[in-house]
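User: Quick sanity check before I run a bigger batch. Here is a single chain. Can you write out its predicted 3D structure?
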Amino acid sequence: MAKGVKTIKFQGPHYPAMTVPGKRITLKADQPGLFEVDQWLPGTTAEDKKKPVVWMSQSMDRLSVLTKKESASGFRFVIGKKYCGNYHYYIEASFSGKRDTTHNSGLYVKGWCEPRIADSRWCKQPGGEDERKTYVFSYGHLIYLHLDTEGLNGDSLIVEVYKVVAGGGGLNDDKLMSVYTAKVIDGQVNLKIGNTYQWYGKIGKPKDKEEFYVKVKTASGLVVTDGKDKVHARFLRIQNRVVSKGVESSTNNTPTKVDLPDKNQKNTHSCKYKEISVDDNGEHFVVFKEGSTKFKKVTSETQLVTRRIHFAFDRSEIRTEERAFLQTLLDFLLYNQHLDMTLSGHADDRGTLDYNQALSERRANAVKDFFVKGGLVKSRIKTRGYGEVNPAVTGKTEDAYKKNRRVEIDFSYLEYNQEALIYETIGPDAKKAKDITVNVIDRVDKGCFRKEKHDKTIIYINETNGKDLIPKKGDKVKQTVFSQQSGFPKNYAGILMRYLNPWSGIDYKFAFFINSCAYYASKKNATLEVRVYPDIIWIGHFQYNGEEKVMPYYFHQKNFDLEQGISDVLNELKDTTFYKIFRLFPANFIMEHTLLKYIESQAKSYFYGIHTIHNRTVEKSGQELSLVGTQTNIIKQTDYTRFAAAAVIYGFVVVGILIELLMIYLTRGRNIATKLQKFAKMARKAQAVLKRMEDAGVELIPPAIAVNAGMYYQKQKDGRLGVVYEANIKADPLIAVNFKREFDLLQLITKTIQDIKNAKYPDDAAAKKKMERNKNNNSKISQYFEKIGVPKIKGTINIKGDIIFEHNIKYNVLTNTYKIEDKLKNGVFTAKDEVLIQEQIKFEATITGEHELLFTFGPLQTKIEGKIDVQLSGGVGSKLKYGANPREGKGLFLEKILACSGIEGKYKGSLMGTSIFGVNKIETNDGKPTPFTLIEPFEVSLYKVQLFNK
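Assistant: Done. Predicted structure follows.
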């Protein structure tokens, strides 16, 4: 039984009223539709139906193949407005790629849009430049009218030429000079007007310069506009001068063409391959797949080709042995319809000149007939005969005669070059190295027309800075690859800088040249570039623990030796450390040596380490990071790394201490700053400082913070490689405070957050509305108590609580994504890179003494960040924000932000108001509590710790 395609179907935007199902379809302009196989012939197996079929679009008479494409997923077809009209294309599909001329297995298709003249111009030659502004014609000149149309392809048009009548009543008075008919071909009209001398006689007495224009109608008499105007080609200008009295017939000179060369068009070629893959680390990665791989950049280069076929003596029939080559060439040209060719026939020198001339022409035409019967458009093929005048070789031998009996086929085609495919992998150094295998599937070169042919049996390889291309035979080649980490770990600083700089070129490259006419044609350009990145993991541990012992908190649960204490590097870091700390203070009343003395006393509470692991047993893509390899303690390499580690630790310690100092500042106590300054001057040891702070009502609970961080390259599940910044942070506690402090209500209600450096109001519309409402009430309460002689209203604030957390953070530079794991489940995610800790430092405010019953307090912000309920009178929450900016050489950072809800009070007593005469008066609030602001809500960034910075 016969097998193959029986019928096809269409789905997509079309006009049902202009469609005959199963025969003709009218598409909507510029909207692609899909042709698919509808029915198969009875002998077609299920396996056959999965195979690609060859789709062909043909001319309306079905004599010429316009486009040809192999596809298993249907054929997408779109008709632009230029090609819409009464012209039908014929769409057909088959397994063999041959047309079925006896059955109607395909569909006719046309496009429709509103008819329009899109552009018009007067030219000196067919399709030439618009000469209206640069040239004045004369009577007797050949003039070409060019029209670009929409919705009129294949239609016959009536073109009327009018002369402008000066002083007339407009278009109705203008004079009709000539009427022409022209067929629209590929959306264009190139009308040759050869009777302009007749216009001269028709005008009678021409002026120095006359102006002409055209109107266009369809065969049915419909006037075609440009969307608004029915007049086109304004104006052709002809001077009063006769250059010829000759008259030629006016014809449409638009060439019948299929398509124009498109340098971005895919080249369908029989010199190609279907797939390139890489076997690496026990995994298989496809890097190129024909039909699905998207190229970043495509350039083309024109190749000029001459091929010859030979004939028997005194014969013009194509020999059987030559037909195979001609069929290969025909298939290529059918798939690449923008190519033209010239066929030059030749004969040997036996016979007369006239006879040999005719014989050479017959030979050229025989080849042309072969191509035309195969589906090529006639207009693409030029033929000429040279007889015996251009012999390929000279001589009177039989061998010379054979070589001269020939047709030379000259054609050009576009070769395509793409940017190299990139495959990224992780590798050890050159001493250890590893092997990968590059596979090329279904590589063919039978249709290679190059002079220097592509060879399907060889792959050339070149490594970074290498001058020679090393050939390897076969379609599977094994290559030893390695990364650029020679001299490591002694040169660790330079390699670390390249890790942090995405443009530093840390990879080591191996280039594979797998060239073909269809893909990566130029032998100078690599097809596949394998980039090998170092397998180094950079690991840092930073801890602060008041108990002076290492916390068992390590990177990926692998034990590392940590250094204890920083006394020996403290002096060299004082200036930088103090600057980082002091500029963040909420007020400048803490003297430098107060905090510095505290840190010095805690020298043994710091633990730190910086390690690397390289030449690893690398994990497979998407699997857990492997830490099996050669471990190096970088801290022992140079003093520089010790200084850097100590500076990071300071940052984490300061996070906890500054929060405690800020709690003190919230009380706005008048004597706090004075006391602390005195304590600072008196302090000689940290214990003295702690004792004085306790006297001030503060219980200091030193923070316990452990951080471990890693930076490494890791292969993703999709085969891509990305830099990953990972940090594990545990604080138990980060904040711990317990104190009770007096305050003066009348003094507090006159303060704003402007007294807190870098503080800003939260983005909370409801809270801002409350503060605006309360502003006037604060003033009234203050004025009232001043008027009745009350200078101070005493109260107390109890502040207690702690905040702990444990997070694992991963930032992938490749995908620009964060993964934050909240190990203790006590956080609320407010953004992709931000966590709000649920635990709060709680405020409880009360008024003591005779005014106690007049005041009550509650949180001004009832929710922090709109997520967490505020308890008691108010609360302070902690927000952790993570980020990275590798483009600027900045690795992962942690920013600590304090969020205070503020405290709102309600006053039940009398107020001070203003009478209509402008005098102050005491007024009652009629028993309704008056809201006021005791402490404004705010956010303040306390510190940012940067990991893996340049």
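Residues 764 and 866 are 8 Å apart (CA to CA).

User: Great, the batch can go ahead then.
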